[in-house]
Amino acid sequence: MARPKEFDEERAVESAMNAFWDNGYEATSTQDLCEATGLGRSSVYNTFKSKHALFERALKHYRAIGLHTRAELLDSAETGLDRVRAMLDGTVAEERANGGRGCLMVNAAAEFGHHDEAVGAAMRADTEGQLALLTGHIRAGQADGTIDRHRAAADLAQFVHATVSGLRIMSRRGAGEPEMRTVAGIAVDALRPRT
Amino acid sequence: MARPKEFDEERAVESAMNAFWDNGYEATSTQDLCEATGLGRSSVYNTFKSKHALFERALKHYRAIGLHTRAELLDSAETGLDRVRAMLDGTVAEERANGGRGCLMVNAAAEFGHHDEAVGAAMRADTEGQLALLTGHIRAGQADGTIDRHRAAADLAQFVHATVSGLRIMSRRGAGEPEMRTVAGIAVDALRPRT
DNA sequence: GACATTTTGTACTGAGTGTTCTAAAATGAG
DNA sequence: CTCATTTTAGAACACTCAGTACAAAATGTC
């Protein structure tokens, strides 16, 4: 057999992810990545063959943990509306907890636009996952009577997803928690049945 | 007197702005800026003393034209609600027109976060201007009965502004016009009076 | 212990970065 | 025309960038 790695690959990906998350792709140098992960250049290029490939790994990792925590938040309440509310409030709380760094996917979308195929694919995959998750819970809310039935669940999911992006941008811009909670509250009310 | 400039400074700023808008700050090299503006390196550094200073000029320029077109859209309808609708629909139309490049301010917010003081100040100024504009029209809508009175106009403005950011991110991510119109429509309905 | 294999540390590469320097060219005032 | 002033063109600058070459170090197997 061969010499074993001295580090945990997933842990390294997570460190790199945080570096990209804080400063963006272009502004994060390979040197920064070495320092963030604690690896030498050789190890970085040996395990993840390029900066861009490492970024893709970081996006994938982010997507996994993001979908997981989002799903947990959505499961933390009874009615459909309350579940959506819990997810939005959780997003705000998360932003406060990590100092308003926004969402890696949103930041990547803004930085790359549709100039990068691989990044675009990751963003599409993430969006589809989030929308599928949201649509299910919104449909449940329409069934239990807490969410308006006059609009397609998929459309409302799109709206909620856009609201999350808006909140992420607000946060990254430095908005305070109260403003974000206000926006989240109005968005939740928009889902209520029209009496 | 001295030798006159061979180019229009504002026009150069606009070209630089478009370069930054398309590709972001870091990914736009000084070489790119020379090609975009048609100027030589000397002229660029002579008139705008650094890449960063030129970016600040670009942000300022964007802010001016952005606020202007936004104000025009808001004035293009009768009732308060219709004015907000016109602004959101206009945003969607603008995105289609320019191929989904999003908003320079949103992109800058995502790229810089709160790491850059000058950029942060420009973003704060822009946000305040947009919110002030929106708040006025929303207040008018509350007066003419087309917008809900149970919430503060400033809060609703914050919501609409966040929705615009969300739409910009959607667009930059490659979303289609129908999805964006759907989101805009739901946001407008959220402003309606609760019967 | 010798070997095949893989990781690691260090030095290096060539290209590209933002910025500056120098000197020629272009202007209007005196 | 002369001169001070400013813009231009283009080379040059120091530095950083992402990525590589290479040899030493570390493993399990034989």
UniProtKB/TrEMBL annotation, chains A, B:
Residue stretches making up the HTH tetR-type domain: 6-66
Descriptive protein name: TetR/AcrR family transcriptional regulator
Gene3D superfamilies (alphabetical): Homeodomain-like (1.10.10.60), Tetracycline Repressor, domain 2 (1.10.357.10)
Organism field: Amycolatopsis minnesotensis
Highest taxon, organism lineage: Bacteria
A Pfam short name: TetR_N
InterPro entries per record: Homeodomain-like_sf, HTH_TetR, Tet_transcr_reg_TetR-rel_C_sf, TetR_C
DNA-binding region ranges: 29-48
SUPFAM superfamilies (alphabetical): Homeodomain-like (SSF46689), Tetracyclin repressor-like, C-terminal domain (SSF48498)
Keywords assigned by UniProt, alphabetized: DNA-binding, Transcription, Transcription regulation
